[in-house]
């Protein structure tokens, strides 16, 4: 993996086994079996020494190093670092996830006690069976098989009464009631009744739902924006969503009117990012990029000065 600019010129040569988006001027990248962080010139700002690494938020990133990198069951040390690579806080957590709104979900011990840590590595909330990320000031959490929502102080804002729940997006949260999915607002009021076999969070004003075996998209009030007629589909990104058309195994993209914007001819499709989509056509894993008109895109080297 490497990086291109908005003019589709290669600014960092493809040299990493994995590379993430830049956040706060640094990007986590994996090379020769270890993660480090590169700057926008492609040089190592923090040398690769981690077995896992997340991106930065407010000057803090979560990293993991194994006691024995060659052992699958090795003890893992999850710590917080600053932008220079200095350890800000060592933790005893079994696993830590990415920061969101200043808190990171954490698996605090092997027994399954889950909660949240702050940017100093301090456990601020715990005692849950499962936790999701904080979004719009609330996080979905579960105890004894029931889900609800808490605020950053741990106060239960929406009671733990749901079979499942995901954190908020677009002022709506997906919840499961009596084996059906619906949506609630920040006060826990049901604003879209649980009637769907599956549902995703809102993305770009629309939510993917499955109804009577087919997938479509609804608006914030629950009205059909795109009727359910797809066998497979993904969330909208930059105005396009990948779909599988009826019995055809190939995938294409629709616009928010439900019209085919890019004909179905791909084995794999990925969300639009910076106006481009990664796809494969003839063999899984053989990727190239197309633009929003379906044209194949070529990345060019930077012109020599």
Q: What is the element layout, followed by pairings?
A:
Elements: E1 3-4, E2 9-12, E3 18-19, E4 27-31, E5 34-38, E6 44-50, E7 52-53, E8 61-66, E9 76-81, E10 87-90, E11 95-96, E12 104-107, E13 114-117, E14 123-128, E15 130-135, E16 138-143, E17 146-150, E18 156-162, E19 164-165, E20 173-177, E21 180-184, E22 190-196, E23 198-199, E24 207-211, E25 214-218, E26 224-230, E27 232-233, E28 241-244, E29 251-254, E30 260-266, E31 268-269, E32 276-280, E33 287-291, E34 300-301
Parallel strand pairs: 2-34
Antiparallel strand pairs: 1-2, 3-4, 4-5, 5-6, 7-8, 8-9, 9-10, 11-12, 12-13, 13-14, 15-16, 16-17, 17-18, 19-20, 20-21, 21-22, 23-24, 24-25, 25-26, 27-28, 28-29, 29-30, 31-32, 32-33
Distinctive features:
305 residues; mainly beta; four-stranded antiparallel β-sheet; 34 strands; 0% helix; flat
